[in-house]
Amino acid sequence: MKGEKTACCGCAACADACRAGAVRMAVDGEGFRYPVVDAARCVGCGQCEAVCPMGRERGGGGGRVWLGARAKEEAVRLGSSSGGVFPVLAEYVLRRQGAVFGAAFDKSMEVVHREARGMAELEALKGTKYVQSRMDGIYRRVEALLQGGTWVLFCGTPCQAYALKRFLGREYARLVLVDLVCYGVPSPGLWRDYTAFLERRHGPLTAFSFRDKRNRDRGRTRAYTAGGREYAANLGRDLYCGMYFANLTIRPACHACGFAAPDRGSDFTLGDFWGVEKVRPEADDGKGISLVAAHTDKAREIWSEVRQFLDWFPCGEEEALQPRLKGPTPASRLRGAFMGLYRGLPPAVFFPLYEKAEAAANLARRLMRCFR
Ligand SMILES: Cc1cc2nc3c(=O)[nH]c(=O)nc-3n(C[C@H](O)[C@H](O)[C@H](O)COP(=O)(O)OP(=O)(O)OC[C@H]3O[C@@H](n4cnc5c(N)ncnc54)[C@H](O)[C@@H]3O)c2cc1C
């Protein structure tokens, strides 16, 4: 729990760790949550600092194995964003009457970490949500389950996974810690405003997929249902996703992320297998392939059991290391101006204005191409 914005990843472990209830998460003008300490309640125990995952040595990785993999069952893969390795690992834990933690949409389409104890509940956790998820109460819940001897699989961003490890403060044989290759987390406040904008335009939003695979385009389609109608388009043409991939809406700390490297402190790292068409063209059918790093002996042991449910191949580190495993996403030089506008304008003005500016910029780009 550090003062500057670039030093806080928003994992909220400090709030969960504070037994005095002195730390709460408050939303800033960009829509991100930061811890605020109530000095009157603080007992100075230092637990909030102790669990903070930022700027720590992580180590690990001795004997790390890199793999490409996809679920054999097509329905599993189609429900996931990459190769569907997460649900395969999740089933390993559910078969042991365990609990799986991942990110889901709640009733108001906000993204929250949640517990699944069966296959039906697991559905909501599948798939990438490009929004920073809320972790309130999750660290304590995972600890309570592990102390009671329950198997737990936790999947989240590398900072969340490492925060959980620090929160627990000791190894648990029944914990499977999974993190994601991460581009950076976008603002949950901006997401909420975007969903409100869509609802004003189309009616109630009931489903949103950031990585739909209907076009066999490796999940580069986003699809949502609003007012009873479905809208599908290229991911980059979605207003919210366009802002994200233009590096305008990512949390400040993500641009200095220390986890954008192979050493994570988790058992598994999952990502998209970028460039698989060059490494294994025969495996690339457009429906997604995961990149998997098995960092620990525990991971390699689990892998030897679950690999029967996957088509997989080993690969070298040089084939696996995509940009987000080498360094953080750089911020756009327009980020400050963009966030200034977002803070200053009501959402009902901001989104239509941005949409018009985008349309004008696209038109200008097309015209430039014609005259070239
Ligand atoms: C914000 C974000 C950025 C990402 N950036 C990259 C990238 O640059 N390069 C890359 O290779 N891969 C990236 N990924 C990972 C990738 O999109 C897939 O999530 C990953 O490959 C696992 O896919 P899967 O098919 O195995 O499982 P899936 O079924 O798709 O499982 C996805 C898992 O991620 C969890 N999850 C979803 N949304 C969130 C969230 N907002 N916060 C925390 N956990 C979440 C789900 O609960 C589930 O456990 C990113 C994921 C997220 C959430």
Describe, in plain words, how this protein is organized in 3D:
- With 372 residues, this protein is α+β, with helices and mostly antiparallel strands.
- The protein has three domains: 5-51, Alpha-Beta Plaits (2-Layer Sandwich), CATH 3.30.70.20; 65-185 and 250-325, Aspartate Aminotransferase, domain 2, CATH 3.40.640; 188-249 and 333-371, no CATH class.
- The chain has 14 helices and 13 strands.
- It has helices at residues 13-17, 47-51, 74-78, 85-94, 119-125, 138-147, 158-168, 188-202, 239-245, 276-279, 297-306, 317-320, 335-344, 347-371, and strands spanning 23-27, 33-37, 65-71, 99-105, 111-116, 152-156, 175-180, 205-212, 221-226, 229-234, 268-272, 290-294, 310-315.
- The protein has an eight-stranded mixed β-sheet, sandwiched between helices. Strands 8-9-10 form a three-stranded antiparallel β-sheet. Strands 1-2 form a two-stranded antiparallel ribbon.
- Residues 80-87, 102-103, 111, 125-131, 133, 155-157, 180-183, 185, 270-272, 274, 290-291, 322, 324 line the site of flavin-adenine dinucleotide.
